[in-house]
Structures
1.
Amino acid sequence: MQWVLHHSDSEDEVEFVVERDGIETELTLDLPEGWKQAGDISWRVSTWNLRRMVTGGLVLKTAEDSVRRQNRVDPDSMAIVVEYVGQYGQHAAGKNAGFQKGDLIVAFDGRKDLLRETDLISYALRELAGEERVSVTIMRDGREMELELPLQR
């Protein structure tokens, strides 16, 4: 099923047959426009390598409302917390660039509309291919800071 969905268009119908209690039933799955971008890839094993490429080994989580309020971040703006900082090899690029656990990312390449780790990774892979570095605005201890994150292949 995953292979079929991966190769489906952004707006498509997928027909398939399921068997329940020995009875075959034909079903149709309507895939709305944009369904591929609506999913969350953070749970996938393959995301670990994408994090190396895009976040320098940082694991990111969407900030809770209390963190947004504490840092005066608008509810519709980017607020992504650094949950984990990779320590070794290419996964330490974020650490070496100055990122720390607990940093709040509020802009990535000037964008403030990337609301999830999945959105940030997707944007970087689509729009920043070939770039060497990306500017990241963070909040740390109530202060706004700019860091440069290396992008890796």
2.
Amino acid sequence: MQTARVRYQRVAERREQNPAATRAAGALRRLDLAGKPLTLAGPSLGGGSVDIANLRGRTVLVFFWATWCTPCTQALPQLRALYAQYHDRGFEIIGVNLDTTSDPVKPFLTQRSVTWPQIYQPGGLNSPIAQSFGIVSLPTLFLVDSSGRVLSTNISIEELKTRLAELFKK
């Protein structure tokens, strides 16, 4: 992790106005998010906007994904199951779709019965939201506690299952 931080810092310090420098600065922000409040808001795929601040008091998974990403689509059944299991106990999911256009996204979500809110900005991995968080691979999952603080910026589905079981013990 420290090596990645140093490399991102070198690129970001160049202060060049290019996507690599912007993404490196975003990656540094992502690496430093643990334990800090997450600010995340953006246009909703269905119109309006999505703001994680409106979900304070609930544990939130932020799922950066795209329809073309096979590991993302393979994760959906497990995420739907976790959502069904823990939603009534305070668990939410916010999807952040990183397709380059929104055309395939709505039919994809409908076909797979995905009901949680989706943030969408055109541009895929070059979109402002992807660059601001330094998202370079998909899926990327952030887990945020009920007070709005980031627990993880790189949690796997298996780790998520364990963490949710711990957080929602009866």
3.
Amino acid sequence: MNIYKLRFAPSPTGLLHAGNARVAIINWLMASANGGSMLLRIDDTDHARSNQKYIENIHKDLSWLNLNWSNEVRQSNRTHLYDDAAKTLREMGRLYPCYETEEELQYKRRRQLKAGRPPIYDRKSLSLSKLEKSKLEAKGQKPYFRFKLNHTSIEWGDIMRGSSLFEGKLLSDPILIRGDGRYLYHLPSCVDDLELGITHVIRGEDHVANTAIHVQIFQALGGTHPTFGHLPLMTDIKGVGLSKRFGSITLKALRDEGYEPLALIKYLMSLGSDIGKTPIASINELVKNFDVRKIGRTKPKFDLEQLWAENIRFLHTMSSKVAINRLKQMGMDYVTDEFWNSIKQNIKTFEEARFWYDVCFGDITPIIENFNFNKEALQQLPPEPWDKKTWYKWTHSLAAATKLKGRDLFLPLRKAITGQDHGPELSTLLPLIGRKKVILRLQTS
């Protein structure tokens, strides 16, 4: 049996956004559903833009989503492998030096497009003699290196797109190595997938043309390419693609704002599929029947309002056991089933529970509107023990004594007891707050 081995391969050049998260989640689910594993590959060959702080954020983001990875590799530590592969391709005549400047290449592209032709590299550098190359290098022109594509049909079976076909002659020979010696995406990615035994590569459909190139690189290096699957790219609500460079909603921002990771996972997986449509208590519940082919071909649109609504639904349907454990981890030691069931319909994030925890078990600043009213409320306050009926008994006797009713009766009490003009039912909060605290708050002047 082929053991599935997938990888999530972010570049540490910015914070991960929701689209990146969706790719990571799908890779993790596919690996887990097939008894395999997901590796984390840090694509940090761009030394100028890569930053350790982004690597640390990648770790935090994946851990927050509960996506464990089996191993981690960094491309910056694997240059020797890419050097060996480049040497092999050079000796085969598949990697060749080129000397055009960026301005010259842009000029060629403009002419081709103006003539109605695709902007494919003309391979002019292949015709340069050794002497011509030496003269260019003597002038300080450093070569960059392209991979020579075979002008044959390139085919593969794509999990998402079905049979895929590209004609090599319609593709431009890709640049593998820049003039400064830095490796671009193609060669390190293929070398790593081969060396690490990656069986499946699931990534965005913006990589489809890259995959055609990679199939030939795998073949040239004597390896078998992984099984590929290309996901439709996520956009924002206006249809604009998500991007690390242009301030799309980041996982760090969602985490800091109090979104629940499982709510985010459910929401992302529900876009374009039936996956995540039903309530879940763990990401592992998505593993059992996961099939990447169930994901639709339509571009999913990320809507922050829909995610917010999903987050609220998630909290409101969470079991007391799970919620209490979470709240205690946040330092709320005295929470009970009664507390959670009282407040859950009035919070949008777990952090908001902290205020109601202080209302019940800590200190708040009461809002006193009528001291004489509060004195009468103290007179009518029932003795303990208290239960859900206490609130109704108290307000009934207070209404008879003050002749007040409705908001005129209830709102001053709510403000004095909770410091808010809205919130959970006081019939459930009152027994949690207790008589001693209620007296102290009503006596505040």
